[in-house]
Amino acid sequence: MLTGTEMVVSGEIAMLSMRQLAAGLGISVRHLEKLVEQGAVPAPIRLGRCRRFVRRTIEDWVAIGCPGNRTPADVRQDSNQQHGDAEVKHS
Fold first, then answer.
1. What is the CATH number of the domain that holds 67?
2. Domain containing 76: what range?
């Protein structure tokens, strides 16, 4: 059920709040805040004073085993390699 604070793209929620992600992971919001501070979860995006997590980034992070101290770029790169997409690096 949508509460009006979610961003919906193609019928799916694209952004998750701290509370939504904590509930989905089965942890407290405070524990999630500590994990964010430690860099153990993909970094949230700041929208003004709000922090939101990109749902696909979180899903990819979970799919590769929730490794700690990873940047969203690291998670995307691993996800692209897992899905067979080659990431092009420009020099």
1. 1.10.10
2. 8-82
The model's pLDDT over 15-72, given as tens digits with 9 standing for 90+, comes to 999 999 999 999 999 999 999 999 999 999 998 999 999 999 999 999 998 887 656 5
Q: How far apart are CA 60 and CA 43, in angstroms?
A: 13
Burial of 37 (0-12, 13-18, 19+ CB in 10 A): exposed
Name the residue type at position 42: P
- Give a yes or no: residue 89 inside a domain: no
The answer to whether position 90 is within a domain reads no
Q: Is the overall model pTM greater than 0.85, yes or no?
A: no
